[in-house]
Amino acid sequence: MQQVLTIENLTKNYPSVRALKDLSLTVRKGDIYGILGPNGSGKTTTLGIILGVTNPSAGSFSWFEEGNGYHLRKRIGAMLDKPSFYPHMNAWQNLGLTSVIKGISSPDVTRVLELTGVDVYAKRKFGTYSTGMKQRLALASTLLGNPEVLVLDEPTNGLDPEGIADVRGIISRIAGEGVTVILASHLLDEVQKVCTHVAVLKAGQKLYEGQVASLLAGDDRIEISSDNPAKLEEALNKYEGIEKIEKNLPMFSVRLKDGFKVSELSAYLIMHGVDITHLAHNKGSLEKEFLKLLSEDRD
Fold first, then answer.
1. CATH class of the structural domain 221-282
2. 140-149, 153-162, 192-201, 209-218: segment of lowest average pLDDT
3. pLDDT tens digits, residue range 134-185?
4. Which region, left, alpha or beta, applies to residue 233 given φ > 0 means left and ψ of -120 to 50 means alpha?
5. Which of 112, 252, 266, 299 is 20 to 30 Å apart from 70, CA to CA?
6. Cβ of 60: how many Cβ atoms within 10 Å?
């Protein structure tokens, strides 16, 4: 899989604070990659560096395995600040002007308006838009010119629950068209529901990088009980899909190996004559894993 972005030992020092310390990340084509962390963790600084807005104190980064030249940024759509358009112009006019500024000779305005749902109010003046509508138009603007990558800083910031859900849906549709998405967020729910991969930052340092599913798997378990605990335990020990069993009678807590499903375990137990009185799948919580990572001591 092509590496869309590679960051190696990125460090950023300011007079009174170190915003990043030896940060290394890898984003591959097709990822929806979340950079997650509390305020002040270095998320926005990272995005600013990879987009050429600010310079690193040390380290390097490369886009598309070709370096970090200005010409490569034409393949990237970015939204770092609050949406800013002319209030007296409608969506068509604002995106047309944006296309001219970006040097896009054949802008696909119709497509990006439809993809983001702005087409239904595209003729209204921007000054009449709600916060959610403005955010949709900003996303449409980043899609002009068919970028291969979108870089978004807190894309749901300031939105109500309905607006947040709308933006999540748009991001998923964009990714479904083959666009790689890199987004910074402090919202756990946003990352858990949208992202395929995540890097967790704290005080400019990386605490974790990998698939969201792998991070959640550490706390993904099944609770099972039976009127015959001995028979249940015997069957569980013989099932090849179990990675770990914890016994706290009358309950057993089970973690499955990758690729095995809860329904398959249930069918196996029934087939082997185990009367199940309780079965609950407790899926991993990103909040729990995130707080666990943040509580770890770092140099």
1. alpha beta
2. 209-218
3. 999 999 999 998 899 999 998 888 788 888 888 888 899 889 888 999 999 8
4. alpha
5. 112
6. 13
pLDDT for res 219? 61
- Read off the pLDDT of residues 58-72 as tens digits, 9 standing for 90 and up: 999 999 999 888 888
Specify the range with the lowest mean pLDDT, choosing from 30-34, 95-99, 100-104, 237-241: 100-104
Q: Which CATH number fits domain 3-215: 3.90.1140.10, 3.40.50.300, 3.90.950.10, 3.40.190.10?
A: 3.40.50.300
What pLDDT, on the 0 to 100 scale, is given for residue 259?
A: 76
Q: What is the pTM of this model?
A: 0.76
In this structure, the chain runs to a length of: 299
Q: What is the mean pLDDT of residues 263-277?
A: 92
Mean pLDDT of 223-236: 92
Residue type, 6: T
232: left (phi over 0), alpha (psi -120 to 50) or beta: alpha
Say which DSSP state 125 is in. Answer: B
> Going by DSSP bridges, is the β-strand pair 180-185/32-36 parallel, antiparallel, or unpaired?
parallel
Beta-strand pair 197-202/242-248: unpaired
Q: Where are the domains of the chain?
A: 3-215, 221-282
Q: Could you give the CA distance from residue 203 to residue 39 in angstroms, rounded to a whole number? A: 9
What per-residue string of b and e applies to 109-135 under the rule 16 or more CB within 10 Å gives b? beebbebbbbbebbeebbeebeebbbb
- Radius of gyration of the chain from Cα atoms? 23
Which ranges in the chain belong to alpha helices (H)?
Answer: 43-50, 91-102, 109-116, 131-143, 161-176, 188-194, 212-217, 229-238, 262-271, 286-295
